[in-house]
Amino acid sequence: MITIKNLTFTYDLQNKILDNLSLTIPTKEFSLLVGPSGCGKSTLLKILAALYPKYAGQLTGEVDLNGLRAAMLFQNASEQFTMSTPREEIIFALENLQVDREQYAQRLKLAVKFAQIDHLLDQKINTMSGGEQQRVALAVLVAMDVDLYLLDEPFASCDPDARRFLINKLAALKKQGKTILISDHLLSNYQNICDNIFQFQKKVITKLSAAAKDNLLQKNKDKKNYHFALPQSEQPCFTLTNTKISENRLLLNQKHLQIMAGKTTLITGANGIGKTSLFNALSKMLSYDGSLTYYDHEISQLSTRKYLRQVGQVFQKASDQFINISVADELNLSKKSPNNHFFTDPEINKALIALELDQTLDQVVYSLSGGQQKKLQILLMIIASQAVLLLDEPLSGLDNHSAKQIINLLKENQARQGQTLVIITHDLTNIAEWCDYHLVFKNQQLTYVTK
Amino acid sequence: MNPGFKFFLAVIVSLEISLTTSLPTNLIIIGIAVVYLLFNHVKIKNLLLTLLLPLVAATTIFATLYWFTPEPNLQNALCLASRIYVYTLTIYCVFIGTTTTEFARCFEQNFHLPSKFAYGILAALNLVPQMKQAIKKVQTAAMMRGVYLSFWSPTLYFKAILIALNSAENLAQAMESHGYVEDALRTTIVAIPIKISDWIYSGIILLFVNLALLTLN
């Protein structure tokens, strides 16, 4: 048993993130930690990993891991590596643990086979996709042979196949006697694998009863069939003709494609297939070969400054979007945007309340939780009111309620301004119903599909 | 050759030629360095850059000592100007064919550099491409909100520093979560040995440099 006794944790003395929490987590079992974004899931995991209070915050109370060696997989995959390649990272970690050379060879083999990363072993980590990086991060933990795996939303940037693959792998680890604790917003694929669910609500964590657990997992079981239309003869916003996009390797090789103006188009595809690179080409951060036009103007020939007033991108990582320091400053900047004719102060306040951000106005944007940052980021880009908005995984890290609020805002704004929305997502649950078209990215091609 | 030996050899040679004036020795070292670089498949573009960029410094020194001196001495001016090339080319020789990881490991294992420095610097170097990307992203993000951040804009640097600070803290946590403990014992999985040949080659090279310095004036 992992025991937590009377644990209180604060970052700034005023707001207690955890308040007098007592909890036992069974070892050698697979446990899920669920709760709305910003409730303190990451904080608890970092306390268990002994990173807090060393790196942030103040703590009173006791945490007893029962002698288990713990290691943690971070929310942001790219932030957990010291070395440049997976092989070197594994060597670094094992040298730290004072593992000798013979054992290293065995453990490397095991970890590589486990996470199936043989093809990635000597590739530079910063050229990998988010999903590939999470796979590598898991391999490092397997090589380290820790007892307690703490995973903080590890599948946020994974496609469904990679997600299923990794969850099954973690289930296999549990069978080997490891303890798994995952925080996640999505509950699909956990049925028959997860032993306990701990629900985080208003600074209290409760363990769900077996019936409540099964009920929750059943509710989230895969999944509805969706239906999409195929585009007819509408006005295209983007037109691709013999377009090639490469980043380390050729990602897109498209003969012809039109993305329609004023519509919502969904893009899905496996990890690392090139979805984000496509967005980066559309927002002039990545060069392309062939032709890529925006309302019949070649994008590479347009002035970047003018073009980006028309086309906005919501980045995968929320903090990349911020320019100012406080939440209020960020909102002011967006409000002043020349395109914004709709968002007045009362409108913005309404949105802030809906997103539960109204109490955060004086906070530094970087001190918000992952979910709060995401909500603020999307709100800022909605207020900026570009004609086209490219959204890269807009709902990752958001709980169900927040996701619905975000979608409502996007919908309302599109109805008013006729925005063109292009959305990359792995999670169709909340989003699919209101999208007009669905593009599947596969074999270096984008194709419209009806389901 | 052991990366650390290469480094110290370059430092010693540079020091020695700084304290003596022997144009032929400088030219011989430059010649050998270029041959060594070519032998190690240096990219021609990089080689040309390494030869062209120091030209500014070398020309300045030459001009000062030859054209703008009451008693010009061609030999002396050329000698001092060529030193610039000895420095840049020998340092290039040190770094060609050796990765930063090998350097970090070598200094940690062979020269007792604290592992905190070795891996801290290494991790920071690995962050460079990420930082470049991040800056570009900041500029794009700003333009999408109607703000243009020029290369000298304080906001851009503020963001860059924030990103760097944030990365530094994340990095410390990342290292710790992968088992790193400051000052703790670590094993060596990839060893960077000091071979007898390293001592012999270094000895021979130093001997020849000194002989050249003594005889060729």
Quick gist of this model?
The complex is a heterodimer of chains A (451) and B (217). With 451 residues, chain A is α/β, with parallel strands linked by helices.
Q: Which geometry of chain A do the CA atoms define?
A: globular
Second-tier CATH architecture of the largest domain in chain A: 3-Layer(aba) Sandwich
Adjacency order of strands in the biggest sheet of chain A: 5-6-7-3-8-9
Q: Which CATH top level class of the largest domain in chain A fits?
A: Alpha Beta
Strand content of chain B: under 5%
Low-confidence stretches of chain A: none
Quaternary structure: heterodimer
Report the sheet with the most strands of chain B, covering strand number, pairing sense and barrel closure: none
Would you tell me the overall average pLDDT of chain A? Answer: 89
Radius of gyration of chain B: 23 Å
SSE ordering of chain B: HHHHHHHH
Low-pLDDT runs of 5+ residues of chain B are none
Report on this model:
The complex is a heterodimer of chains A (451) and B (217). With 451 residues, chain A is an alpha/beta fold. Chain A folds into 2 domains: 2-219, P-loop containing nucleotide triphosphate hydrolases (Rossmann fold, 3-Layer(aba) Sandwich); 236-449, Rossmann fold, CATH 3.40.50.300. Chain A has helices spanning 41-48, 86-96, 101-115, 130-144, 160-175, 210-219, 275-282, 304-310, 327-335, 345-354, 370-384, 400-417, and strands spanning 2-10, 16-25, 30-34, 58-64, 70-73, 148-152, 179-183, 196-201, 204-207, 236-247, 249-260, 264-269, 289-294, 297-298, 311-314, 388-392, 420-424, 437-442, 445-449. In chain A, strands 5-6-7-3-8-9 form a 6-stranded mixed beta sheet, sandwiched between helices. Chain A has a 6-stranded mixed beta sheet with strand order 15-16-17-12-18-19, sandwiched between helices. A 4-stranded antiparallel beta sheet of chain A has the order 11-10-13-14, with helices on one face. In chain A, a hairpin with a 2-residue loop joins strand 8 and strand 9. By secondary structure, chain B is mainly α. Chain B has 2 domains: 3-98 and 192-215, no CATH class; 114-178, no CATH class. Chain B has 8 helices and no strands. The longest helix of chain B has 30 residues, at 115-144. The two termini of chain B are 30 Å apart. Classes of the chains: A alpha/beta (451), B mainly alpha (217). The interface between A and B is large, with 60 and 46 residues.
